[in-house]
Amino acid sequence: MLIQCTKKLLDQLHEKPEADVDHASPLFSWHANVITVNRRKAVVVVNDNNRYVVVLYGLKAKDFRKLNELIVHAIRQTFREEGIKDDVIEQYLETAGAVTFSKTKNRTTVARLNKASEMVQVFDDLLQHESFYQTEIGMRVSRHLVTDGDKGYITPNEEMYKDLETFSGGPIISSQAAVLMVTLELENHEVLRKIIVPANITFDKVHMVMQRAFGWKNMHLHEFYILGKEGQPIVNLVGDNEALAYEDDLPVRLEDGTKLSECLPATMKYVYDYGDDWVHRIEIEKVITDYDKNYPVCLEAHGNAPPEDVGGEGGYEEFLDVIADERHPDHEEMKAWGRMQGYQDVNIKEINFDLKRRL
Q: Domain Plasmid pRiA4b Orf3-like: where (predicted)?
């Protein structure tokens, strides 16, 4: 595996680059740079063939002495989070061979590397400070459109999947998934979404699945409850450390440290916006062992979710009455307000576009 380093990274490695390196296939060749994020060193690695991004963070001087091992493990970890089969990952790493460091190839690849490094800075809020391997940031950056000469625009993750399918000769993704039936608990309306979700995602991502599926705007606090056999809450999952400080009879855990797979097949409750108090019941219809995608898919969608800040179920009923009555003095104003809040008829194609591209 060829790792072509910027001068800044080579200086950090205190290593003379290999001369006259036989250039590997672009799929097994990467460019790498070292940047500083929040006063800590990060290494950004970009694939030459498809511009897929892998990120390491929090490296100290001693860690750069084993950067070859860390890069290999970072690629392995990131591919696993993508849902790529273990045998495909190991076949790729074995074919790539031992890591060799060299100088950067040309200005074009360095410019692409610099752009990826800028994007890593944008997503610094996703950093996991306890790990070298920043799989979340690498995957997020790799899902952004980039220009690619005659091809126009590409998404690096999709290009990497194609490359690995060609390399391995078959499908590359297989993972456990759960089919969730999610019902928004309203007295007078049926609002539900049936969604298949990879089981290896953490609940902070399940939260975003709920936001996309119901058209919420992520403007308010939320929490999850895992329910026992009798329907009583047994665990509370929260989104930030501050919530851990409140006394509660239930065990409280951070959602970003808990995977959906850990809670299957329990029924769950998702509460969004403590003011309007939107309660969603999540039931597991079935668990699939060989899901061939690494993103959620909405299978069914019925009923419009209320707009943000409408005033709870009572306010929603009043909102619906006003927009249905053209003679009401607030009719046009309320319709305009609803559009501003994103209120629209449920559209499963739009939901699935968001679930695939924006998570």
A: 177-343
CA distance 136 to 127: 8
Residues 359, 212: contact at Cβ < 8 Å?
Answer: yes
User: What's the confidence (pLDDT) of residue 241?
Assistant: 82
Contact at 8 Å (CB) between 203 and 301? no
DSSP state, residue 304: P
Of residues 33, 11, 7, 27, the one with CA closest to residue 118:
33
DSSP state of 19: S
Give 10-residue mean pLDDT values along the chain (359 residues): 94 76 83 95 96 96 95 97 95 95 90 95 87 93 87 91 97 96 97 97 96 96 95 93 80 93 96 97 96 96 96 97 96 96 94 86
Domains recognised in the chain with CATH numbers: 2-168 (3.30.420), 176-306+343-357 (3.10.290.30)
CA distance 134 to 281: 32
Residues 6+ apart with CB under 8 A from 184: 191, 192, 214, 278, 279, 280, 303, 305
